[in-house]
Structures are given as C-alpha cells and as structure tokens.
Amino acid sequence: MTNDNHAGQIIILNGAPRSGKSSIARAIQDEFEGPWINLGVDSYNAMTPERYLPGIGLRPGGERPELEELVPFLYAALYESIAIHAGFGLNVVADLGHHDSYSQPLGILGDCARRLDGFSVLFVGVRCPLETIMQRREFKQEGRETLYVRATEEVPIPEPVQRWQDEVHRPGIYDMEVDTSVLTALECAEAIRQRLDLGIPEPSAFERIAGAR
C-alpha cells in the first residue's frame, strides 16, 4: 500500500510501560487538528481474548513462549489496520512497547515498518528514567490490586521492569525522542507537533528499520 496526498499522518510512540506514552497519545488526540485514532496497546488488548493476554504487550524475557507464535500475527494485523486507517485519510497515534527479547528473535518491528511502506510515519522514542517509572508504578498500585510486579526493599527495581528498560529501545532508531521525566505529556505532544511541522528527514526511522534485514 502506498501513500497519497489524502493519506493520514502516523505517529508511533515506543517506550516501556508507565513511561508516559498513553498520556502523550491522549494529548495528541486532544490538541492536534483533525481526527487522531488511537490504535495502541491498550485499545488493541481490549479486543484480545483474555486467555491470550498480554498479547502484543508481552514483556521481554521469553517467559510466555506459548503466546509467542501469535504475537507476530497480532502485530501484523494491528499495523495493517494502521495502514488502512491512514489510507482513508485518518491520522493514527499508536502507543506501543516494541522489543525483540522473546525466547527467540521474531523480527516484529522490521515487519511492522515494512507494512507502513509509503506512509508518513514519525517514530518517537518515549524515554523515562527507572526511578520515575517506579514512582508511577507505586502511585498506580496504591489502594488497588494490580498485575504489576511490586518493588521491595531487597529488590527496588523488579527484574521485569529492568528488562523493559533494557530492551524496548533496541535498536534505538527514532525520528525523535522525548523524556517524560522533564516534559509533561502536553509538552511532549507540542514537541512532536513542531517536529511534524519541520518535516520528516529522508530516510525516516521506519524506512531504515524496514531496510534492515
């Protein structure tokens, strides 16, 4: 599928859980001109049968190999949907956590990038220090049950949290990066808007990722 003058803009936000991706996506939907459809991990997992969760949110470490066969197909279907939406002139923002730390490499990011060949894609790395992520996790956990692994005095940074931080930004090829520990979600969105206004340099991050075999 190729781009044309009527195709929508695509923004892919990539980062670890609690790094602030979903807040940036909401700010983009609220502040940017025109309709912005959120096709991120939360909305996609809401459509995924519970027995197959966490679906595309499967964390690094290869700990659920029985789900790994399905994950590339879920990502492929999601990115084909992104392409279809953009092809109809709808703008898309997708907050995701790409990594390739499964029981064996699956090459999902490259496949996804190739599915958006010809579209205008801004690939944004959403960074956040571990200390801030842990503060956000603790705040979310207060007063309710949670699926998050809790920190303890003996293990202040749970291993799954460290794995996300280590793996989610590989290979680290982005059009731009934001740090949500120093910028609010709205400020991140504004920086993204300014980057779009300047235009994406050639080749874009997704074009380079798509070409890496």
TrEMBL record:
InterPro entries: CPT, P-loop_NTPase
Catalytic residues as annotated in Swiss-Prot or TrEMBL: D42
Molecular function (Gene Ontology), one example: transferase activity
Upper classification of the organism: Bacteria, Pseudomonadati, Pseudomonadota, Alphaproteobacteria, Hyphomicrobiales
Coiled-coil residue spans: none
Binding, ATP: G15, A16, P17, R18, S19, G20, K21, S22
Matches recorded under SUPFAM superfamilies: P-loop containing nucleoside triphosphate hydrolases
Protein name listed in UniProt: Chloramphenicol phosphotransferase
